[in-house]
Specification:
Elements lengths: L1 H7 L2 H33 L13 H28 L2 H33 L7 H22 L3 H15 L2 H11 L19 H33 L4 H9 L1 H5 L1
Length: 251
């Protein structure tokens, strides 16, 4: 276990294993995205109240769910960086921020598109949307801190602290519809009990959630590989990759 943990801290090993993972995960991700999108957008039955406008759920829910999970990944990498001073944790934390920000923005945008026909407004300052907006600012804050510091070690410490403090927002997002009066409906998906969504609509939604998780992992690994090459550009193993052309093809 500990030997594997130490391997994760090795840039050459991480670069190599991520390439092997991507070789099969990328095609799987594309397959799941295409399958889930066609199933959900074309073949799932319309909602008896919202009609076809509910189909935005197949983008909105997966993007929002994975944006929250991505923040935990970023905060976890920040904790590892602070405790064990692992360079790959810094790389993972830095790579998570723009991906999480993009997913959060997609969740907010798709929520606005869904909210207009459902609530009659593009944006409502309820607890769920406001806490998701704070999540976006937290991701952007980590990105801004990395850009503001010339010393990458100090930037990583500042970003790790911000990421860890920001985790208090995640349970607020999850429970906001239960704790405060909100236009958002209570959770329709449950892992421990029955979901209120019909199975004909639920199955493609689970597929799209899985596809977005795979998309997150692919994006994370690709971004990390680019960051590894940047940080290790003066090392012999990276020069060897560039001489053979493997580094350029991988990124």
């Amino acid at each position: 276990m500990w030997s594997f943990f130490h391997k994760l801290g090795s840039p050459p090993w991480m670069y190599g294993i991520s390439g092997r993972i991507l070789s099969w995960l990328l095609p799987l991700t594309l397959l799941l995205l295409a399958w889930g999108a066609v199933w959900g957008l074309l073949y799932a039955p319309p909602d008896f109240r919202q009609g076809h406008s509910f189909r935005i759920i197949y983008v909105h829910v997966p993007a929002s769910v994975v944006a929250l999970a991505g923040y935990y990944v970023m905060a976890g990498a920040g904790a590892v960086s602070l405790i064990w001073k692992m360079k790959m944790a810094d790389v993972a934390m830095k790579a998570c921020a723009p991906i999480g920000a993009a997913l959060t923005f997609l969740g907010l945008l798709s929520g606005a598109v869904w909210g207009k026909p459902t609530w009659g407004a593009w944006w409502v300052w309820d607890a769920r949307t406001t806490s998701m907006l704070i999540l976006l600012f937290l991701y952007l804050g980590v990105m801004a801190l990395y850009a503001a510091w010339d010393d990458e070690a100090l930037a990583a410490k500042a970003c790790a602290l911000l990421a860890l403090v920001g985790t208090v927002n995640i349970p607020i997002i999850y429970k906001s519809v239960d704790w405060w009066y909100s236009l958002h409906q209570p959770a329709s998906i449950s892992l421990s009990g029955d979901s209120s969504v019909h199975s004909d609509m639920m199955q493609p939604l689970w597929l799209m959630i899985a596809a977005f998780y795979c998309l997150f992992v692919c994006s994370l690994l690709l971004t990390m590989r680019g960051e590894i090459l940047r940080r290790e550009s003066n090392t012999g193993w990276v020069r060897g990759l560039l001489m053979t052309g493997e580094g350029g093809r991988a990124v």
